[in-house]
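From the pipeline queue, job 12 of 40. The input is one protein chain; the requested action is below.

Action: predict structure.
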Amino acid sequence: MTITVYGYSGSTYSLVLLHILKELGLSYELVQPSSFEEIKTPEYLATKHPFGKIPSLNDDGFHIYETRAIARYLLNKYQGTKTSTVLIPSDIQKSALVDQFISVEASYYTLPLSKLVYELVFKKNHGGEADPKIVSESREELEKTLDVYEKLLDGKDYLTGEFSLADLLHIPYTFYAVNIAGEGDLWNKRPNVSRWWKNISERETWKKLVVEYKLGA
């Protein structure tokens, strides 16, 4: 069995997949494109991702792209084979709630958060200046989302009550916002959200990734 991830170790979406692979106890090879130009070449578009994005994955000749689709594939095939970690429950109703919160994460959480992190982290890393208007608008939108999360997490350690793929998908972008962009107060000032972030960010598998790929260094 050979699992190859095509992506960058600092990419939030690549990190989602690497985290899942570690949770599942699976070995993998990370192949990092030599440049951003490489992922726009005809060969890459034809064999890795037709929209010139990362990550994509090859599992013994089976190729798939798009992070959430890859995540579900890995869990459908390998969950329970190496570790006892369950990220998508077999119970239909519990699984539906995981999907519900994955939709919430994509639509209301990551949408403003990704804009904020791009401006404060990735844009600056490439010599650009953060746009104050985008930063302000993204922060304001994220504040509203986190207010809802504060209510959703009342009396719960995780979004569905147990750690799942829905929680895991939140980790990389939030890590960058809290630990690099200096936006930790957005989470810390909300007790339920703060407790939830502590729970998901202190998983051993994630902490190993942070060390292995020198995230935030």
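Job complete. The first strand starts at residue 3 and ends at 6.
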